[in-house]
């Protein structure tokens, strides 16, 4: 039975393997060994895993800055997709963000990822006319 629960240290290897498989070209700063310790310092209750019999099947990281919520690292093992796990992770992240007073959630998808775009559209998300910009600090 799949359970959605907050991340714990025993999930690390499963999350790391999942992210390496699902996000193979992610930069170093998005890798588990860098991003998980940073997330555990800020709103760790918004880092969730989907687990079945000790196996990590999916993840979602969320954040809320008092103005907007954000979703990151939404991932489900390919052999566990289309079973409602991603939808359950998304629903729980949305519930937790709403409980904090969040009125809008943002997320970013890499251009051309039509399957993921369709998943979010199915859950009420729309593509917005925005330009995403970023600036990195330090050696990350």
UniProtKB/TrEMBL annotation:
<keyword id="KW-0012">Acyltransferase</keyword>
<dbReference type="InterPro" id="IPR050832">
    <property type="entry name" value="Bact_Acetyltransf"/>
</dbReference>
<dbReference type="InterPro" id="IPR000182">
    <property type="entry name" value="GNAT_dom"/>
</dbReference>
<dbReference type="InterPro" id="IPR016181">
    <property type="entry name" value="Acyl_CoA_acyltransferase"/>
</dbReference>
<dbReference type="GO" id="GO:0016747">
    <property type="term" value="F:acyltransferase activity, transferring groups other than amino-acyl groups"/>
</dbReference>
<protein>
    <submittedName>
        <fullName>GNAT family acetyltransferase</fullName>
        <ecNumber>2.3.1.-</ecNumber>
    </submittedName>
</protein>
<feature type="domain" description="N-acetyltransferase">
    <location>
        <begin position="2"/>
        <end position="140"/>
    </location>
</feature>
<dbReference type="Pfam" id="PF00583">
    <property type="entry name" value="Acetyltransf_1"/>
</dbReference>
<keyword id="KW-0808">Transferase</keyword>
